Amino acid sequence: MSDGLRVWQVWMYCHLYRRLERFRRPELLDAARAGGEFLLHSARVAPPAKKCAFVLTRDGRPVKVQRTIFSECFYTMAMNELWRVTGEARYQSEAVEMMDQIIHWVREDPSGLGRPQLPGAPATESMAVPMMLLNLVDQLGEEDEELAVKYAELGDWCAQRVLQHVQRDGQAVLEHVSEDGEELSGCLGRHQNPGHALEAGWFLLRHTHRRGDPALRAHVIDKFLLLPFRSGWDPEHGGLFYFQDADGLCPTQLEWAMKLWWPHSEAMIAFLMGYSDGGDPALLHVFYQVAEYTFRQFRDPEYGEWFGYLNREGKVALTIKGGPFKGCFHVPRCLAMCEEMLSALLSRPAPAPARPIPDPARRGAE
Amino acid sequence: MSDGLRVWQVWMYCHLYRRLERFRRPELLDAARAGGEFLLHSARVAPPAKKCAFVLTRDGRPVKVQRTIFSECFYTMAMNELWRVTGEARYQSEAVEMMDQIIHWVREDPSGLGRPQLPGAPATESMAVPMMLLNLVDQLGEEDEELAVKYAELGDWCAQRVLQHVQRDGQAVLEHVSEDGEELSGCLGRHQNPGHALEAGWFLLRHTHRRGDPALRAHVIDKFLLLPFRSGWDPEHGGLFYFQDADGLCPTQLEWAMKLWWPHSEAMIAFLMGYSDGGDPALLHVFYQVAEYTFRQFRDPEYGEWFGYLNREGKVALTIKGGPFKGCFHVPRCLAMCEEMLSALLSRPAPAPARPIPDPARRGAE
Signal peptide location in the record (chains A, B) (predicted)? Predict the structure, then answer.
């Protein structure tokens, strides 16, 4: 149950196989394909309905189902990436059909997700939904003119929905807003997740790149990169807080002050992407600062891999390398993307960075 | 939404009013009665069905509904206690009708709770369910011969179900077991919650007291008091861990090593009750040890009340005094019960305890 296949692992294996020469290894493709076939066979809870399980047993029986779109989003990413490396059309048609179902749930009728409609629960938008969908637009439209055109309007809609999470005269990114883009009352409305804002930041940067919108690009760097970094970085012990309250009150989540691996890997991607696009040395400086903390605090020099969960002071709080939410995804995606961006920077006729990347030998090893 | 009334607060106000002379104040009864009327009017999500909301808006609309029995259990406790202090029969009939519904959900047909039946999810029993029901048997049967007789068999059944969470030849209390009382595979099966075991311990002690079963009493003290204390007490920094893994592996919950207020208040009740019944000084010694840690680490000497959430080292991690799960319940229940037990001990012709209770002036102040 706990050692099952991860949907995002299928995506990751295919992505590494496709993008990085040294990972073009048949065993990686075979594993991804086996995972994909398992998903095709077992992911749906009640086929032909498209709702997918979040956890399956080793033999493919559903254990948990989330009343959100995220299992289906990762399913779509895995299927699209499998199509890209194998060329088999059935994977792509799975991806596009699931994408259309997700769009229907998000933009037309969420009732298929199974969430109860309670009269006292305000209609809220979690930033995770439009940002995940924006990431899918990026995934499906990559070097695919037809789908890029098909989903262009959707991409604009997603970007606009993510952008409405910038609240308080541009002074805060809030994780949940009302359906109309207003701040919600109480601690739900004040809830902030700096790593999530930074991840949304690089999804938006790629969107502005596709759309060729430099004014939006500057806004994104200001509001989704620099703002969450400034407010989310612990001035005392370093590292990004997991959760914050926009009024500076104490969050109600027990783990709010912990330092998790993935906000740091997403921050590295965001700042390196921001620097690669525009050349502002301030963004490169933050990339260094985050990377230095990350490689110093999260990596396990003895047995490899990164730890996932540190306490506020930076001490390892959970010794597990993988768990219900830490799999083969954020770390390799960060390392692969940073490697590609750094290689591109180094091949440009530009001055080399003033300081070396911390422990560069490490990056290719995971 | 977040400042709503708490069901357990109604119970607590009535309980203090009824049991402790200095709390027999009309404003406490008025507040409890107002809360009770609000619950009667608004707690049920879709009356006449009995499922209750977990969170309501200030004006009584449901915000969250849990697919468990716990909201209904606290509703039952509140109504029964309201009947005890007001004598109004409508509160008691509400309590008994809800109790019968809960018993139906637990022992006959859980489908009304709305949990999906997934083929890969093993049929598990969470210790919380029989222990909560055992606590209700205690509540409803107190000085009520008719209900004590009505629920006697249920009490035995609950005790037997809680006892089957003692696993591994008596070496571990496991939070989740199979429906047949076997250890579950994986980290779910190894999951331990020392504070919960200790709370179950004093529920069982009261059961053995009602049933007059000294052999069971010795077993409970051994397995639900001393065992969780020995394995759950942090030898390095003191205090009870929130979660543990029965194999000593790292739990997957981010907050596993934090020190929460309620396991400590439940431990104080359990050990003082164990000592009061049998006189074993070892149990009094543990009570002292827990109370000393608790009053030193959790209480706020400046503004009163207890903090709820410390990090492993004992530093306050969340400065909130109340939150989604910390209300007017564990602290006053602990202080009221300990005060009653200590008064009874002091009025006995027995040698006085060798060491004073830490900061006794504090106890009555909350």
Answer: none
